[in-house]
Protein: Outer membrane protein beta-barrel domain-containing protein
Amino acid sequence: MAFCLGQAQETTTSKFNLIAYGGIGFGIVENDNEPNYNLNSNSGEILLNYNISQRVGVSTGLGLYELTGNGFNALGNFYHQRSLLKIPVLLTLNSEFSEKISFYANFGFYGHTIIKDEYRFLNGTQEDIYEGWNFGAQFGVGLLFELFDGFSAGINVSGQSDFGKFETNANQGISDKQKIRYLNSMGLIFVVDL
Structure:
């Protein structure tokens, strides 16, 4: 007769994480009646993540996107600058490859609104041509390296695309709708256990 007692060490993970990531990238502005054009992006998001289990969590927070690019519409050639405030609601996944390296992914939905919109034409500047809220879906994947106990950093790739469309302000001389498609970025990600 044999008696065996096995004991495994259970890893404890924090219930809450603060996740911050940002990057640079590009996207396409898709218009209904005007020509499409490309935009460069600088973006950043800060999320509060609640870990439901060791691998799955939910998160929300705020994001800020700065978009710039050149294009053409009924009023002529322009340089476009737009700032967006974004509120995402995401499902997060975390899986460890080794003791120090882990894989991070998120996907979900967002709502964003224009906080600054400026078109510079040859003969002047127009602001707030487009307005309102828009909704879409996003995803992100990253590779994290644990630098200190409870602090990881790594690289992140993300993408998003709008479902709805921003509408023009009727007083601006353009009647159109537009959405941002295939807004992709690559940058850094930081995760802090709380």
User: Anything to note?
Assistant: The chain has no helices and eleven strands. The radius of gyration is 21 Å. Confidence is low (pLDDT under 50) at residues 1-10. The longest strand covers residues 76-96.
